[in-house]
Amino acid sequence: MKDKITLGSWAGMWGDSPSVPRQLLDGADLDSLVGDHLARSRWRFSRAPGRRTRAKGFIPDVVRTLTPLLGELSERGVKVVTNGGGLNPAAAADALRAAATEAGVPLRIAHVAGDDLAARAGELRAAGARDMFTGEPLPDAVLTMNAYLGARPIAEALARGADIVVRGRSADSAVILGPLMHEFGWADTDYDLSAGSLVGHLVECSPQSLGGLFTDWEDVPGGENMGYPVVDCFPDGTATITKPAGTGGLVTPATVGEQLLYEIGDPGAHILPDVVCDWRNVTLEQDGPDVVRIAGAKGRPPTDTYKATTTVLDGFRLLFAFLVYGGDATGRARRAGEAILARAARVGAEEGAGPLTETSVEVVGSGDLTGRVHTSDEAVVKIGVRSPDANALKVLGREMASFGLVVQGMTGIAAGRP
């Protein structure tokens, strides 16, 4: 068993910068690169009818970013774990194998299956599966249904000799916990492996824990070269978090502590597939410039259920925005937004289109978002609508263009006609 494992977190979302792995490889002696690409808002890329991505179903950034690094990863023995397999981890693994073969790099690439429950939606519906927040029953027309798997399959793949492990949906922190379970020999019943889940939680969103979302944003330097997390993990569950030298960001108990509180609900019972975490007695101590030591995580046995993210086709939506400037821009912007929606509803009804079932007019700059209402001579009006009928939105997209002739001070329609 190793006495220390060093991880670099190279992706906190789909679309993260492809320059990050280079920063981490140059800035630390890594054992593993770990990437969390599957933010919830990114899960809809897959099986909507007619979408060209359906055949692949994985996040192409993973292959594009790793391909030029495969030789170095092999030479240095750096393992890679990513959930960028999305809905098709097998295809992602195949694409990486093809890239490794073309580069002449001997890498063993594994993928983890088992999270895809779409074919079992009827069975689960009959068993009473419901929305965990609203209690609504599982909808009839399910596009995707994927369970949040735990870390054990990653540890097993690494134990079988994998150099790169690609998986689909999992708990965000599991991509970090998996390598630690493998290297430190942690058993599933070592429930204080919650410490590894804590590390995973702290770095799953990458630079957020280094000041990326820090309340005291003015204290965080170097956003143009933001540092990404490097974590030294130890068998007793303690860890230190830092960043490559010369990069931006800030690593303090406050920056790390804000990420600790991010998205966890009950800090005494943060439920993950591997463990129910108790982080109420976690300590964060400054252990040097831009180094924070983490300790104190505890855990209990996991629940006997899995959470699953499920998508359904629930109609259509359209969003657009434009700028209004000059005296009382906020008032004119709001009036324009309301008039555009009224015209679209009237013309759509005349043409037999369905109704606009949900509408939103937000005047950015007037206090709509903060609640501190005021007027301004610059305002952006953001309009959003939903409808079960795509034709209703086509009418809106067509009719709004003419308002450039009747809204005083209207300019800057973002991306043109929606």
UniProtKB/TrEMBL annotation:
Acyclic terpene utilisation N-terminal domain boundaries: 5-413
InterPro entries, per the entry: AtuA_N
Domain of life: Bacteria
The protein's name in its UniProt record: DUF1446 domain-containing protein
Source organism: Svornostia abyssi
